[in-house]
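Sanity check

After download, print the first record. It should look like this:
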Amino acid sequence: MDLKRLRTFVAVAEQGTVSKAALALRITQPALSRQIGDLQQDLGLRLFKRSGRCLVLTREGEQLLGDCRTVLSIADSLNEQAQLLRLGDTGVLRVAAAPQTIESVLPSFLHRYAERYPGVRVKLVEAVAFDHLAMLERGDVHLAISVFQKSDERLASYPLPPLEVLAVFTRSLPIEDGMVDVRTLAGLPLLLPTSGFATRQLFDAACRLDRIEPAVFVESSAPHSLLALAAAGHGVAIIPSTVRVENKDLRVARVAYERKPLQTPRAVLWDKKRPLPGFAEGFMAPLAAHMREIFSSSQAIELTTDTPALRRRTRSR
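Expected structure tokens:
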């Protein structure tokens, strides 16, 4: 069966008109109409019916559309695999990550990776975790550095150090260094990330379990805005452990519920159906080692702050 005809069928089904599909495929309308006609003749089925200026799938067309997409996806994967085999350790590695990960983890890591794979150009795509699955399924990226949903069987994963919830505050607030329970934070003005952050979801879940109504002073999608407000004494900033705290006047503590740190699994993810180049596989283990080095549980606070109490604690180990 001609894959070109299948692509034409899927394009018309998605675009709704011959003219739009022809533009998307960069072919003429007569050529596109011929391909649809030939496919219908091959199958012995009518795939479209006209509704005004639009083409609508028939019942038979609707049933075949999903299978056609699957066939095309498999064909694309074979082509990608052949191209990767030809290229070897050269090419472009597309990686999706949240802004905080790009800022705090990747600048230093990419130099290390380039030493091992000098022929590979890494293209970073900034995206929140909510968008990672769709990007992987479409083939927009090879890998996504993301919080890991173990229930999603479409994805393969390589584990990374977990994402932790940190509280950042000035010395004037009555909070101990090291670890702070959500109940301790309940009566303080809170500077929270918006609901799309895994950090916020973890914090809200702990509050619900403890039947706490947090005193929210502000919500922001920019963690550094929360840090600026905390530095000015407006409350306690709740941030992910991937955010660096450069202000030496701020203190940092891990947020806990029932004496256990709030954290969620994190991993490098990829679509099981799509082949990975060797240089993508070589990205994962070194990244995990790099993140353990800079964000391990035993060092997370020391690496992001430099308070005298923490310096004393480090020397005493």
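If your output differs, re-run the checksum step. Summary of this record's structure: The two ends are 68 Å apart (CA to CA).
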